Amino acid sequence: MKANSNKGTMISSALNYSKTHFDRFVDELIDFLRIPSISTVPSSAKDVDKAAHWLVHHLQSLGLHDAKAFPTEGHPIVVAHYEVDPSRPTVLVYGHYDVQPVDPLDLWDSPPFSPVIKDGILYARGACDDKGQLFMHLKAFEAWMQTSGRAPVNLKFILEGEEESGSASLPGFIETHRNALAADVVVISDSSLFASGIPSITYGLRGMTYVEMTLTGPDRDLHSGTYGGAIHNPINALGDLIGKMHDEHHRITIDGFYDRVRPLSEDELDAIDALPFNAKNWVQEVGVDLPVTEYGFSVLVSSTSRPTLDCNGIWGGYTGDGAKTVLPSQASAKISMRLVPDQDPKEIAELTESWLRRHLPASMHMDFKVVHGAHPVLIDTESRAMAAAAKALEDVYGCPPYFTRIGGSIPVVADFKELLGLDSVLMGFGLDSDAIHSPNEHFGLDRFAEGIEAILRFHAHYGLP
């Protein structure tokens, strides 16, 4: 009884501190969001570095005196440690401080790096993905230290600056710092609630194979009047190839693509069916007239638990104002494939290239490259850490969370499992409507507060069961 009483007192004190200092927390987050740390843009490298050192200084101000930004071949990785008791479990917190590019800039209602608050919603690039969610963990730690003087768990932080550009430096860093990063579980807040006020914990992530191809026909751009009708246009050839990658049932036609797909169990299908999802509302929110899914699968299954193939970009020829009657020499496309257990990103890339080369017209040459890949992930929902997270979310929202799969990829989750043997708890507080890779990205301050509370409660339930 006394232990439970002390636990309750610790939580109450930390929660009161968080509420009392919440406005300052928001002001600090706004300072962080002002740094344009776009990892994919070389000209922003100094700003990415600035954001890393901002984090180091902030972590040190919270009492994490060993906080350090480690240089890599790309952008810095920030690491810090806190130990309260070696007998307590250790939580490794992962987040990323880099952000997506802001294009198209003219669609933003306010400058992306001049944060504004409207009706309790914070608008800025990175507000949700992932600076705002990362920052919840720092503020939860501060609340423990300023009230009880200690956290209920040991904590380690690994905060990277390349997530939005493929995390190229991270796996090698993890491998060479295995001992320093040893923990019992990883906690990541870089995902979403199922819906506003509906708590969820992600246990399944799709993987990714991302490729780029360029078709070359003539050795230079040609006049379409002089040569049209006698030369195969690379844009036409590319469009035809992409069109053939799905059949009339929207099933991917690459030979062997589905060979390793693990079917959903009846329990998994029942769990998906139980989610409070309305396909008609979803269609309206997305702004389309009707959904298009692989034959025989629902919108929710198709968007979270089935493999996909999508053309993410296509270019070639003249795209400026007015007319230029050019027959282009080249046409290019970027294609992403979301993968499910037990598909392998490398194998899928090889199958894709093989299929493309077999269907390539004799009039074309093709350059093909793999941009990056990520393994799909399934996480044990019965672990002690998952139980603590579920209890924390139930405390905050008044109802048990759903365990869900999401359609996106978080490559580092597979890296942590492969390199450190650690499962992750994906406890995110974004919403699909937060426009995380789009203009007007935002994060509700109510969810910022709920996230801090949930993290505090998770620490207590996991460290003081």
Characterise this structure.
The chain is α+β, with helices and mostly antiparallel strands and 465 residues long. Helices cover 36% and strands 20% of the residues. It has helices at residues 2-20, 22-33, 45-61, 131-147, 170-176, 224-227, 234-243, 266-273, 279-286, 299-304, 345-359, 384-397, 411-420, 445-463, and strands at residues 68-70, 77-82, 90-96, 116-118, 121-123, 154-160, 185-188, 200-205, 207-216, 222-223, 310-316, 326-327, 330-339, 365-374, 377-378, 402-406, 424-426, 442-444. It is globular, with a radius of gyration of 24 Å. The N and C termini lie close together (12 Å). The mean pLDDT is 96.
> Tell me about the biggest sheet?
6 strands, mixed
Count of helical stretches: 14
Shape: globular
Structural class: alpha+beta
Q: Beta fraction of the residues?
A: 15-25%
Q: Order of strands in the sheet with the most strands?
A: 1-2-6-3-7-17
Share in helix: 25-40%
Q: Please, what is the average pLDDT?
A: 96
Strands, total number: 18
Report Rg.
24 Å
Uncertain ranges: none
Cα separation of the termini:
12 Å
